[in-house]
Amino acid sequence: MAHECVLKCGNVCDPSGTITQSKWESLQSKSKAWVGLDKFGDIHNRIPWKDGPDAYHMHNSCYITISSATNLKKAQQRKQKRDDLAQGSRSSQAAGSGMCSDISGEPAPKRLRSSVGGPLHDKTMCVWCMKGADVKHPRRARNKLFRLNTLSAWRAFKRHPVLIEDTQLRDRLLRLIESTTALSDPFAADIMYHHGCWQKYINHFQEHEIRSLQSLLADYKRIVSDYGYKVGDVKSSYLKELIINEYQDTVGFKERSEKNKSEWVYDVRGGGDYIEATMSSLGITDEQLLQNVAQRLSKKVKDTPSITWPPRVDDLEEVDEVCELLVQLLTWLKQPKRKSADLSPTTLSLASMIAYYITGRRNSTVINLGVNVHGVTRSKDLMETLHKSGVCISYADTLLLYDHWALVDVEASATCPHKVAEGKPSIVIVDNDDFKIDKLTGTAKGAHRTNVMFLQPESYEMKSDSVPLATLAKKELSALLKQKCEDLTQLQQYRCPPGSTSEPPARTKAAPPANGTAPQQVRSVILALSRIDIDGTKQPPEEQKVPAYSGFQSCYHPPLDKSKPYYHATYDEPPSKSVMYDIMVKIVVAMREKSMPFSFLVGDMPTYKTVVQLKAENPEMFESIVPILGAFHQQMSYIYAVYKRFKGCGIAETLVAAGVVVEGSVDQALRGKHYRRGIRCIMLWRETLLRARLKKVLECEEQSEVDRSNLEILRNALTETQEVLAGAHNDLREDDDIKNIVNKVYEKPGTDTGDFWLSFLEMTDPLVQNVEACHARNGPEYLSSTYDMLPGLMAYDNHDYGRWLPDYWAMLSSLSDEQMIFFNDHFSQSMTGLPYSCQPLDLWIETTMNLNSKLKLGWLQLLQNEKQLFSTTRNANNVARVKAAVKQHLRCQRRNRKHVECQPARMKKDEQAVQDLQSCMADFEAEPFDESNPALRSLQSGLVASPELVRDFKLALQDGRTQAETMLQERVFTKTKTLTATIHKNKRQNFASQQIPVSSGASMTAAHMEKSGLAALMDLAEGSGLIKLDTVLEGRVTDECLSMYNVDGSMRKTCKSKMLHLFNRDPAPEKTQNYIAIVDMGLVWRLATPTPEDRETVKRDGSQYRWSDYLDKICNIISSRHTGTRLIILVNDKYDGPHSIKDDEHDRRAARHGHIPKVFPKPEDTFPGAVEFNKIMTSSANKVRLQKLLKEHMGRQFARGSCEIIYCEGETSTNLSTDTVSEDFGFKQLEADTMLLSAYAKLRTENCNDVVVLDSEDTDVYVQAAYVSHQLQGVLLIKHKNEFISCSAMLPEQVADIIIPLHVITGSDHTSGFYGHGKKKLLQKVITDAEARGLLGHVGESLELRDEVKAEMKTFVLSKIYAEDVATCGQARASRWHRMKKKNTVRLPPDDDTLEHHLQRTNYITYCQSHYGLAEHPSPIGHGWDMMNGKCRPVRHTLPPLPDLLTLPTHIDVSSDESSDDDDSEMSASTDSDE
Predict the structure, then answer these.
(1) Per-residue pLDDT reduced to its tens digit, 116-130
(2) Kindly report the CA angle at 758 between 668 and 520, in degrees rounded to 5?
(3) Residue 866's pLDDT is what?
(4) What SS3 state is found at 969?
(5) pLDDT (average), residues 679-707
(6) C-alpha 759: how far from its chain's center?
(7) Sign of the CA dihedral with 1322 first, then 1323, 1324, and 1328 last
């Protein structure tokens, strides 16, 4: 909000321009001197000084102006001048009136006649142009006649004729001046002029300085005497000679007609400086000149007052009083011709530092800079360096100042900060602060403290009225402060009162919230609709204009009031009962002193439990203290409950594969230990699931025009006003159509997979609503979300938060009206005042008081020095005020900040993340709501959930809801059982706890495998020391190499499509008419899958959807996708081979279903449902029969078409237009991916020069096309949506040469990826690294893998993927092992045995794909695959998990199916802000 400056300067002040009491008193005294003068003449009499400065604001520049003695002197001179002119005007008017009385009745005014002929002047005309006023345009100021009536104007008029070149005009004016000068009053001549003529003659004259020689002689004598030289009898002729010698022909002299008058001296160019010429001719040295200036300047600087030491913080917020002469000197040093002083922050700061250097007295500038540097860096060396440079005060002075301020503060109030408001409830936050000592956390002695902080809105803050202490010596001040510190934190052992109980009382029964999470569901769906196009399709990430969830909410929420923390105390031990009792007693005393009605005491779960118990044991003493559980810790605990339910389902692997979070942080993020990352991961995953649900819902739902209009407004979130966005959002929130869409989104799909992933949305709704309520400060929704968290917490964390949260919710629901109003307005508060920026109260202390001890340099020493720690914490707000003062004085303008998610780069990043997650699900073939795959399985590994696991997932949240209701009835509303009575911990299952058969024949979980491997490794290599670690790690330490394979032996999948982000996919300029299309029939089959809309359309006709409808749709898709072709080649996968490198994948798909029937489809038969169709398509024999049926149907459809169509099926091809069979496009290959490029090579070898278009969405085809397009002549395009992309332009040639081996070695359809190493980052590295390209340059040159090629590939894996500059896998694994803080074999490089088989498969696949001209591919057996039970299986390893000489220790117990870290429910979470 802007305010008017109290000095009426005409400009507005921002709120920072407040006036302190001392400045107000100074202004009152200084304004007296300005009474009657211009500019500030009425200030003193106009301002009601008794009201005080609170309601007024003032610019610092205005204060400097009114305080300037020079400005005051000039104003007095101007007043004297006006008085003199007024006196002259009155006398001239008197003379003029007498003249008029003598000549009254004459028809024309008198004219002065020239002796040479013609009038000298006519009183009705301009003296220069001899024209009268403009009668036609009387309002034009430039054509009016003005009377010359001031002495300054008369003096300028007398001097100006010397420069007039018109001889006649100059002579006339000279005679007029002579005749007028003879009069006693020069104004009696009534000389008139036009404004324009005055500008032309007089102002032009003033640009050329003109002086009399006599006046220059007087200046010369004064200057010489000022420099200490004696002045004798100097003649004007001597000065004239000096000037001529200096300026030569640039100076002119003009004799004057008056007798005894010296010559006029003027600059023929304009602007000459004769004083400089005089001094230069005298020969005064620079040293003498500076010495004379320094004496006077030094005296002026020393006479300038400065602040007292040690100063108050209020004094430091004011601008220094600086020497005006020094400021003028600094101005002229930079701008010698500047007339006014430069009052910029740079000049004023420099003047203050020079004054500090001259006088040695500390002023505001150097003190503020010292405090600012210390507050930011806490570096003694830096402060001493700057102090010796004269920039700031010393390090010792800074610490002394801190001690002084802390002592003043503690003298003002020992129980609470003295600026806490009186008569208002207080908020006290307590937290356990654990910090690092010698790289140990949490267990070292002295590694815990209890921090206490008060929090209140800035508007509540009381003004400081503390009296400064008497100046004490440094030792005395330090000793006194140390004693005060010991007195404040001295504890006595708490003893429970006799007969008391720690059981909280029964709560008043409260009804469950009415709406639950319904408001949050509506908000989430509205956002998801806003971030996609109107038709429900996704848009390019760079075109996304709607921020993610928090950024979107900030766009339509209003700004908030800012709050301020007050660091109060820190105890040298954890928050035990004794510590908390001492804190609560002091709060009671503070409430009595400050007349507070009640106080909120906030803490995490252990602190909250202690406060509840102390209040139960001392009900009367602590009656007015309300315990509050920190929402930040509550949210982290609930995140952990979500993690325990969905652990092992593939969320972590998918997030890593999509590049949302790195593999080292994903587990900690999903557990809630990395709060901001965890929230972001959950939000992105929710949006991915919501888009999948909306895609199906919008296929059957039509949006109204009103909804479309409102959604279009929300899509302009960054350009529309807050009011418009809020109105559109409110309209959508109340719209029945939107509510209907929300209901369908949250409707149970009815499949195990769909219900499981919908439960993720349902379980995270309370979490997101709780976060939303905290950011928007919505108390009712916070209470509602807390209640809705109970089922999840009771199911997965019933021994801690599940026990205490029901009682907390009931306690909040039973608050008094006054307490509830205060809670709703203050349970979260804003640090910045920006919209949607409130934070939970416990997060305040984590990000302020606690964060300092974890990050800032020197805090470890502070934490071990009680006095210095007390001084530092108590002065946090003082340091912040000094920092703000420095920024204000330097005019550091802070731009209008927006939420981080509103930045264009972040919007693109978030949209890209959602689309990458969708791509990963597609690459993993794990669509969460795919009705054709109803069996519940994990995303990345495809592990099918057991019936027991599915049943547990379905019952867990229902059981949790039942347990929560029982808890409320038995232990909260009534005391049938005590709250602290035993609760048996729930044992819930998840994918990570499911037993999986492994290669050794046993069954174990992933945690078992990891634990057993780590235990053996630690015992054999690091425990006994009998064998080197790299020797052990040369082989596997687990049944499977977990960095490349899942626990069940399936390959680790990677997101292949992310590699395409680095491909150039701009539309090709080539024309695409009469081209040849080579179509991947696998893509057409997927596009033709019947949608619910297809089936519904047929049902409206009264018939059922049949196989013929499906076949017609396939034909229509082919025809519509390629309308400008002359030849279409349809390429099918070969399914009737004896074996395939996809056997392993086919068997895993078939294992998801039970009995797979043999189907002989006929066009007139009813088409099966989605689930049945997916089951049928897992059989290769069924696919062969379907291919045959499709071929017959297409033969009838395209028999008479204008476009020739060739249908390829393995070794034969059929021309459907002529019904002829040939081997022209027959290939003995198993996959359509390679056959597409072989068909293209066949066309080029037959001298076909037509444009060829590949129609496939498979990443493998893009990779092969990028390579082949550089090997063969001709235009090769690939169809992407409705555009055509040039394959040769996708990658540079040197990258395209190795793109196939790079793609295969990092994970393709037939090879596994490396955990945590995405394809996109590796391609970025290879593009810029010629060495990396060289290591892959020989892969696939021959079918047999040569030793030197294998060595190069191993080097690429170890050095480029894992960044280990070693020779062997064992050394690389050992090196990585030593660097890992949390040991995990998943993140190790693969062992040598596993990697060798992977490299063999890479070489084989690369050979087949790079030799695109092969009609028949060689057998994969012996090249990374082997025949097992008649199936072609990938060889994962041939050696046992540990070297032959090692065995698993018999004392290792791996019987438990829960990893140890799952037993921790109370998170010691970090508050990382990397997002």
Answers:
(1) 456 778 888 898 888
(2) 80
(3) 55
(4) helix
(5) 89
(6) 30
(7) positive
- In the DSSP assignment, the letter for residue 1421 is B
Q: What are phi and psi of 1166, to 5 degrees?
A: -70, 135
pLDDT (mean) for 452-457: 89
Q: How many CA atoms lie within 13 A of 438 on its CB side?
A: 4
Rounded Cα distance between 818 and 1383, Å, is: 52
Task: Give the rounded percent of residues in the chain with a pLDDT score beyond 70.
Answer: 84
Please say whether the beta carbons of 381 and 857 come within 8 A: no
**Predicted TM-score (pTM) above 0.70:** yes
Q: What is the CA radius of gyration of the chain?
A: 44
The 10s digit of each residue's pLDDT in 636-675 is: 999 999 999 999 888 998 898 888 888 888 888 999 888 9
Residue carrying structure tokens 């990443």: 1259
> What order do you get walking across the sheet with 599-603 strand by strand?
563-571, 448-457, 426-434, 599-603, 625-629
pLDDT for 570: 81
The helix (H) or strand (E) run that includes residue 13 is strand 12-13
Greatest C-alpha distance within the chain: 141
User: In angstroms, rounded to a whole number, what is the distance separating the alpha carbons of residues 38 and 40?
Assistant: 6
Q: How many helices (H) does the chain have, and how many strands (E)?
A: 59, 30
Q: Per the structure block, which two tokens stand in for 266?
A: 């003027």
Are 493 and 433 spatial neighbours (Cβ–Cβ below 8 Å)? no
Secondary structure, 3-state, 686-740: HHHHHHHHHHHHHCCCCCCHHHHHHHHHHCCCCCCCHHHHHHHHHHHHHCHHHHH
Cβ contacts of residue 55 below 8 Å, gap of 6+?
Answer: none
| Residue 1131 · residue 1069 · CB < 8 Å | no
DSSP label of 1040: S
The overall average pLDDT reported for the chain is 81
Tell me how far CA of residue 1278 lies from CA of 889, 1080, 1117, in angstroms.
Answer: 62, 11, 17
- Placement of tokens 């794990």 in the chain: 926
Residue 1450 zone, left/alpha/beta (φ > 0; ψ -120 to 50; rest): alpha
Average pLDDT over residues 1357-1375: 88
Place of tokens 């004083």: 275
The candidate with the shortest Cα–Cα distance to 1291, out of 1061, 1055, 1057, 1056, is: 1061
Measured between alpha carbons, how far is 393 from 407 in angstroms, rounded to an integer? 20
Res 743: pLDDT: 93
Cα 916 to chain centroid distance, Å, stands at 21
Alpha carbon 1014 to its chain centroid, in Å, reads 39
Yes or no: say if 1300 and 1316 are a contact pair by the CB < 8 Å rule: no
Q: What is the tens place of the pLDDT at every residue in 1418-1439? A: 999 999 999 888 888 899 888 8
Contact 1194, 1115 (CB under 8 A): yes
Other CB atoms closer than 10 Å to residue 421's CB: what's the count? Answer: 16
Measured at the CA of 1470, the angle between CA 1464 and CA 1475, to 5 degrees, comes to 130
E strand or H helix that includes residue 3: strand 3-4
